[in-house]
Amino acid sequence: MQTAALALVLARFQFAFTVGVHIIFPAFSIGLAAYLAVLEGLWLKTGRQVFLDLYRYWIKAFSIVFSMGVVSGLVMSYEFGTNWSVFSRKAGPITGVLLSYEVMTAFFLEAGFLGVMLFGMSKVGRGLHFAATCCVSVGTLISMTWILASNSWMQTPRGYTIDPATGRFMPDDWLAIIFNPSFPFRLVHMGLAAFLSVAFAVGATGAWHMLKARRAGAIASEPVRVMFSMAMWMAAIVAPLQILAGDAHGLNTLKYQPVKIAAMEGDWETEGRASELLFGIPNMKTERTDYAVKVPLLGSLILTHSLDGKVPGMKDFPRDQRPPSPIIFFSFRIMVALAFLMALVGFWSLWLRRTSALFTSPVFHRVALCMAPAGFTALLCGWITTEVGRQPWTVYGLLRTAESVSPIVLSSMAMTLAAFVVVYVIVFGSGLVILLRLLGRAPEEGEHNPSPAHPADVLATHTHPGIAGPIPDEGA
Amino acid sequence: MMDFAYWLPIVWAVILVAAITIYVILDGFDLGIGMLFALERDQGRRDVMVNTIAPVWDGNETWMVLGGAVLYGVFPGAYATLLPAFYLPIVLMLLALIFRGVAFEFRIMTRGTAREGLWEAGFMAGSGIAAFSQGAILGGVIQGIAVTDGAFSGGAFDWLTPFSVLCGLAVMCGYALLGATWLVWRTTGVLEASCRKWGAWLAVGLFLCIVAVSLWTPLLHAPYLRRWTAWPNILFVAPVPVLVVVLGLLLAIGLRRGHSGGPFLCALGWFFLCLSGLGITVWPYAVPPSLTLWDVSSPPSSQFFQLVGTAILLPIILTYTIYSYRVFRGKVTEADGYH
């Protein structure tokens, strides 16, 4: 029994680790594919070289990010069965079908046109190439839609009946399954998170090159300025929208998963005129939150938008139905803090624009550089909050995580967990290093001139086996 | 409704086998090219090998994701039984595919540095290990797994037997043959000549493997033997081994006489026949020797909803996949790299 409990912990940790690494890449791809489509569209519309330069600069990063997303995602499509066989047997009739739709409507679309996007600029003509870029971008968005429908169904299941003989979830109403109560909120929140994450990654890249140019006593090139400016527009517009979307998602969670909210807030007693904890350490055993720093009335104000609204406490729910508050109390606060920080940077950029100092303020550029991981960190913290907050269930209120796990022996689980960690550190660590080196090289004006005589020149590194690629370039 | 519940799993079994066949054929030559890195040391020619598949490998691997997803949605009982049963080889395969998949980009991006060798080796070893794991899993399914109350009840290493190892080696050999004949078709000069030579050896190796697996399989379970020898089944199944021999001869002739695409088509034919033969053998079991298709399938409402989408989407997918292959058709040479 003891080893079974440990195997369950390892199965959960393994799944959390692999999905946590994976989620970064699709989020990056969603944002970057949309950015690339915008860049190529602007190039076709205006004919300005700078947009093509930026397209070619970012598509190299995209090809790396995308391939890491593909291989880490392949793991996920089999890990449901390897680690959660009872869950897949019971929920497969619903979640498996949604995943199949994702593969058929999105993955094939992305994969089918990725080759044309990366290698086919001179083979298919501008219009068709732009169409391929758009197909890839739309594919990433469709993919997100299906996987969030599936995930949201696990959080707020609807449209099913449970077969009494087998305990399986039988689909009754597919529209109710897909458009379950938390789906629209999660979709908007995640989509904005992906855009925001990429905005700050692109912004930090621009900031890095402006700082480098300044150190060299030069003015940053046009592509650098344009990428930085575009990224900061995104930050200024999307960050406030994201805060509104997050607030709406929170109200939705309060309605359908009140105990998750109670655990996120570290609240134990249900009360009106509730205060908001800025800090504290929730203790699941003593049912108190230690070292609490409170702001009176703010809790009710945030969660109910009124000063005397009722806010739930964990004591209203049986102990075996409470998610682990200490984790999500902090992940939630980190996410919110980063969101406000990102919005602040966005407003700051607007202020600098007013005084035409956007490209000349080294302080701001340093801040933007430090904010590089802000979006991704917030996104991960958000996912930890919603997924750990779903515990102790896989299908909320219906199927417990402990009852979902596969009959895998502890030794196998421990061995594969170690293998996953080692391989992921090597592969994705290397990927990060390669990506940083690639982005450490400034985009050039007239980057890889387009020419019909040069097939595959979009990703010049692939077709210049004899010529040094971007990394040796950079070292030289 | 009874009829629905009977026919839907059959339709889905056909679709699933088709998806697996497409996957094996498409990713087969990708993985084969990775393994052939062991024989081709020249960097320029290695680049040509990779360039022939760089635009399409991702789509090829998507068929594997589809296979997993269809199993999950339509045959969740099989998904939930087979994946825990083959936990170790599946994880091994996934890790190998990770190394191989990122190596496409990473080997170029690290060119000239000390780490380039790591990704070249990763591409080669990852391809070989993935191919072996797939063969071993296939062999493991054929030899059957221990099931109690519809769930896997065996040990972590049940899958590892001489038979599954033979199947693993057979698939490695077969994928390498697909890779070699693909390169015969898509390249020129020294590389093409080498691939003709390697192709001939690999074809002999694969033929021996096919014979060995074909003789061994019927001995595993009595129903398998009856399927192939009972009258009148024998009338329908006899063409399979005959066609294997005919295609083998055509393959040998094609390689020797300098045919371009012929050998690849013959190798594809072999894979098609082998997978059909395996399908005939294990029918109607999804998890031999105990769970049939109907035991493991999801409710008809799930299968039907998914079938509607598949009927519309699969033809579209095939259309643009073919389009994407057409964009990159023709011989790939080193000159393409230097222009």
Automatic annotation (TrEMBL), chain A:
Keywords tagged on the record: Cell membrane, Electron transport, Heme, Iron, Membrane, Metal-binding, Transmembrane, Transmembrane helix, Transport
GO molecular function: electron transfer activity; heme binding; metal ion binding; oxidoreductase activity, acting on diphenols and related substances as donors, oxygen as acceptor
Stretches of the chain forming a coiled coil according to its record: none
Membrane topology summary: Multi-pass membrane protein
Chain ranges passing through the membrane: 26-45, 57-78, 98-121, 128-149, 187-211, 223-245, 327-351, 363-385, 405-436
Annotated Gene Ontology cellular component terms: cytochrome complex; plasma membrane
Predominant location: membrane
Location in or out of the cell: Cell inner membrane; Cell membrane
GO biological process: aerobic electron transport chain
Keyword presence, Electron transport: yes
UniProt record similarity statement: Belongs to the cytochrome ubiquinol oxidase subunit 1 family.
Protein name: Cytochrome ubiquinol oxidase subunit I
Species whose genome carries this gene: Gluconacetobacter tumulicola
Lineage: Bacteria, Pseudomonadati, Pseudomonadota, Alphaproteobacteria, Acetobacterales
Automatic annotation (TrEMBL), chain B:
A GO biological-process term: aerobic electron transport chain
Keywords associated with the record: Cell membrane, Membrane, Transmembrane, Transmembrane helix
Superkingdom of the organism of origin: Bacteria
Principal place of residence: membrane
This protein's record includes keyword Cell membrane: yes
Single annotated GO MF: electron transfer activity
Keyword Cell membrane part of the UniProt annotation: yes
TM segment ranges: 6-39, 86-106, 118-142, 162-186, 198-219, 231-252, 264-284, 304-323
Subcellular location: Cell membrane
Stored InterPro entries: Cyt-d_oxidase_su2
Listed GO CC annotations: cytochrome complex; plasma membrane
Bilayer topology term: Multi-pass membrane protein
Family according to the record: Belongs to the cytochrome ubiquinol oxidase subunit 2 family.
Protein name in UniProt: Cytochrome d ubiquinol oxidase subunit II
Species in which this protein is naturally found: Gluconacetobacter tumulicola
